[in-house]
Write a structure and sequence with these properties.
Layout: E1 6-10, H1 15-28, E2 31-35, H2 45-51, E3 60-63, H3 66-72, E4 79-82, E5 88-89, E6 100-103, H4 112-117, E7 122-124, H5 137-152
Parallel strand pairs: 1-2, 1-6, 2-3, 4-6, 4-7, 5-7
Helix pairs in contact: 1-2, 1-5
Length: 154
């Protein structure tokens, strides 16, 4: 695929979000990485309904846990983490082909351990109304993937 992007969901909880992100990955030629434990079964019909009849074509890589996921990455992997608690806005980031775009769960986000361990690579999507705690995970992933594609070229 032209951009080789990787969307990583760390311990996702809501099957509909994961299904929508799977659909996004298929549309953009990205690989979807799911890091267990998941809050649902892969066979969940809500997951498949959100992914519609595309789910079978999505390039999905399952990881047993965070340690196994990080061990599986190439040493030079371009990793970008996303959190509402980050100081820097993701528009400041220059994406690279093959980047791993790493998101936390819908309920917890990226935990403090991951944010601290990767602090220079943690970004947030700007929100301009403080009453909004966070964006929906599928919306956030879409925003980031398409910004990466915009930067990398069609």
């Amino acid at each position: 695929m032209p951009h080789g992007l990787n969307v990583v969901l760390v311990e996702p909880k809501i099957p509909v979000n994961t299904g929508s992100i799977g659909r996004l990955c298929l549309a953009t030629g990205s690989t979807l990485h799911l890091v267990a434990p998941l809050g649902f079964e892969i066979s969940d019909r809500q997951l498949k309904r959100a992914g519609l009849d595309y789910w079978q074509y999505v390039d999905v890589v399952m990881h047993e846990n965070r340690a196994q996921f990080f061990e599986s990455l190439p040493q030079d992997a371009h990793r970008v983490f996303f959190s509402t608690k980050a100081q820097r806005i993701f528009f400041e980031h220059r994406f690279e082909k093959g980047a791993y775009l790493i998101f936390g769960s819908e309920t917890e986000g990226l935990d403090e351990t991951l944010r601290n361990a990767h602090a220079p690579d943690v970004y947030r999507i700007p929100q301009y109304d403080e009453r909004v705690r966070s964006l929906n995970l599928a919306c956030a992933a879409s925003i980031v993937v398409y910004e990466a594609i915009r930067q990398l070229g069609p």
